[in-house]
């Protein structure tokens, strides 16, 4: 790369590319922040596992989809995309009409995932969907294979106290 350039796109994606590359072609980015989500997931960001590097950014999965997700997209505002290939497995959502809504998934400090929708009248975020369906939908509460680590700890303590 002769002329590296960093740019903040209208989508909120911070990208590193060659100064002469087309920023509209996502495959040409050398690095992009959308591949490294934090506690917010914006439309167009990937949430999953990179099978090449082994980096895992998923939540509870039941083998078909991430648990806690609604069965249908609310009101046709966005569409869900699940991708499984040799390089990666990920979830992504896209807005059906880019001007229809401003929304984001957020992981709260208590481990609850919520879908927030921007309320233009009140100029604030409102909870559109609370994704806490079961205790294992709370981030990091359940261990490997969906076993509740809290339940296992309680059983272990009880067994140790009885014996």
TrEMBL record:
<keyword id="KW-0732">Signal</keyword>
<keyword id="KW-1015">Disulfide bond</keyword>
<dbReference type="InterPro" id="IPR000858">
    <property type="entry name" value="S_locus_glycoprot_dom"/>
</dbReference>
<dbReference type="Pfam" id="PF00954">
    <property type="entry name" value="S_locus_glycop"/>
</dbReference>
<protein>
    <recommendedName>
        <fullName>S-locus glycoprotein domain-containing protein</fullName>
    </recommendedName>
</protein>
<dbReference type="InterPro" id="IPR036426">
    <property type="entry name" value="Bulb-type_lectin_dom_sf"/>
</dbReference>
<dbReference type="GO" id="GO:0048544">
    <property type="term" value="P:recognition of pollen"/>
</dbReference>
<feature type="domain" description="S-locus glycoprotein">
    <location>
        <begin position="57"/>
        <end position="147"/>
    </location>
</feature>
